[in-house]
Amino acid sequence: MPTVLIIDDNAAVAIALEVLFSLHDIAALRAASPEEGLDILGREAVDLVIQDMNFTLDTTSGEEGVALFREIRRRHPDLPVILLTAWTHLDAAVELIKAGAADYLSKPWNDERLLTTVTNLIELGQANRALGQRLQRERKAKRELEQNFDLRGLVWQDPATERVLTLACQVARADVPVLITGPNGTGKERIAEIIQANSQVASGPFVVLNCGALPSELIEAELFGADAGAYTGALRPREGKFEAADGGTLFLDEIGNLPLAGQMKLLRVLETGRFERLGSNRERQVKVRVISATNADLSAMIRAGTFREDLFYRLNVIELRLPPLAARSGDILPLALSFLRGKTLHPLAESALLAHGWPGNVRELKNVMARASLLAQGDVIKAADLGLPLVAGASQDAEPDRDAIVQALARAGGVVAQAAGELGLSRQALYRRMERLGIARGA
């Protein structure tokens, strides 16, 4: 049950408020003086404070209430405070609202308005605490991953990426094949590098073969090597990728492009560690960790007869699904900033980046930021510099939207003052916009 602290020297007022709140499942604590109120705040969990502005008999200046409010704000900067007084001083109300007061109500108050304000502030506070706890958990998980594993300088922030990284690091030391699936340009090779860097063969070679970048008749020679005369143009023996990766890791990108004959030989190597070069009958022995990747639907290829089912299950001992960039939007701005090399993003540019669908994933984002860096006049990238269709003709003077505010709060760890500075707003202007958009308040 949420709890409200009422600080008022008038017992009748405190009792009336206590009864009002009890009828709506809100607990109430009472304090008759600023000192008692501050003492309760130091001992009890309170969701909101309603405080009087005058505590000394025949005093109407409101100075005692101002001092109490500022002390509460100093000790509990994120605690909502409603000011309540029979002596309304407009100038004082405006100043305290600017300083962070949630509302300023006159006695006698309107029960409906007061309850609405209290309920909304409590819900915002609860949402904010939940957001803060989630951000804290995410930051802790990120720190632990970065401290305990070699992530090869990967830039990331989104929980979806964290889940992939956590699983990748968990299986890295197991000597089993890993299949990384996901659209082109999502960073599958980077995940393979992280697996290699944290594996038992981290000191061995990391060899890459893109099976989609070679004609099908040359893939087998690339994988297994070839003796002289094995095919037209093979004038001397050549070492294949398996030999080059002996004692390390072989990353096979676009594994779905491997022809059926190559699939059969690959299956044998995975099972026995043995193979022959093209044009040779001599068996060779290697010990290689195989990581493969594809953007293809291998299950559909199996049904079509273009991919061997037994090879699929051999490669798919562990599958890591890397989502498209649009499905891990928390990575977009950190990645964009990493590509800028010192330049910053205007809030509207951030909104445009978050709104874009990114069909080309991280590769597309990198190209967009390279272009924007060249076109930008100065050190701030504006929305128009990005060349994205969704922001064509956008006004640079418009207010930041919901996504821009949420991302700024995330980067600021929930500290509203810091996020407001980044967005070019005052703290109270940001608070008002957050409340209009239903965004949880920060500290």
TrEMBL record:
Give the 4-aspartylphosphate positions (modified residues). 52
| Cited CDD domains | AAA (cd00009), REC (cd00156)
Q: Where is the Sigma-54 factor interaction domain?
A: 154-374
Q: List the PROSITE patterns.
A: RESPONSE_REGULATORY, SIGMA54_INTERACT_2, SIGMA54_INTERACT_3, SIGMA54_INTERACT_4
Keywords on record? ATP-binding, DNA-binding, Nucleotide-binding, Phosphoprotein, Transcription, Transcription regulation
Q: Pfam family of this protein, just one?
A: Sigma54_activat
Q: Where's the Response regulatory domain?
A: 3-122
Top-level taxon in the UniProt lineage = Bacteria
What name does UniProt use for this protein?
A: Sigma-54 dependent transcriptional regulator
Record organism: Massilia phyllostachyos
